[in-house]
């Protein structure tokens, strides 16, 4: 799945499941700042690190919550 589609899926899932995970909790889990997570999910940072973060978050949410 393309990274942009994953980012959109993550944002949609987060908006409906705030009790389970937030951008802040994901940032803490992956050792990144909340700002970096936000920039990555909103496609305002297009570095390889951002792409890897989006892919890692998607895999984590997929495995843990089945998105």
Please characterize this protein's 3D structure.
The structure is a single chain. α2 (23-30) crosses α3 and α3 (34-41) crosses α4 (48-65). The chain has 67 residues and is an all-alpha fold. It has 4 helices and no strands.
Characteristics:
67 residues; mainly alpha; globular
Uncertain segments = none
Along the chain, the helix and strand elements come as: HHHH
> Based on helices, strands and strand pairing, what is the structural class?
mainly alpha
Shape: globular
DSSP strand tally = 0
What is the CA-based Rg, rounded? 11 Å
- What fraction of residues sit in β-strands? under 5%
Main sheet makeup = none
Helix content: over 70%
**Average predicted confidence as pLDDT:** 93
Note the gap between the termini. 13 Å
Q: Give the count of helical stretches.
A: 4
Quick recap:
Helix content is 72%, strand content 0%. It has 67 residues and is mostly helical.
Which secondary structure elements does this structure contain, and how are they paired or packed?
Blueprint: H1 3-16, H2 23-30, H3 34-41, H4 48-65
């Amino acid at each position: 799945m393309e990274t942009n589609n994953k980012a959109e899926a993550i944002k949609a899932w987060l908006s409906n499941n705030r009790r389970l995970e937030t951008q802040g909790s994901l940032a803490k889990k992956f050792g990144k700042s909340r700002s970096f997570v936000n920039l990555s999910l909103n496609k305002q940072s297009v570095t390889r690190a951002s792409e890897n973060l989006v892919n890692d978050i998607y895999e984590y949410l997929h495995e843990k919550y089945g998105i």
